[in-house]
Amino acid sequence: AKWVAPVLHKVMGAVSGPLGAINPTAGMIARGVGGAAGMANKFLNR
């Protein structure tokens, strides 16, 4: 499960840009999920 957080982080980062252009709220949520995944990744890889 170690790869899940970085992959989710990358996907959410990639999705949040175009998604934010279409729907700012969805972009914000995607960035939030990506950020949470990034934090989880840092925490897991200590």
Describe this structure as you would to a colleague:
The longest helix has 21 residues, at 24-44. Helix 1 packs antiparallel against helix 2. 11% of the residues are buried. The protein is elongated, with a radius of gyration of 11 Å. It has one domain (4-44). With 46 residues, it is mainly alpha-helical. It has 2 helices and no strands.
Largest sheet geometry: none
Work out the helicity level: over 70%
Tally of individual helices: 2
Instruction: Please trace the helix and strand order, writing H or E for each element.
Output: HH
Question: Briefly, what is this?
Answer:
The chain is mostly helical and 46 residues long. The protein is built from two helices and no strands.
Salient structural properties:
46 residues; mainly alpha; 2 helices; elongated
Chain-wise SSE layout:
Elements: H1 4-22, H2 24-44
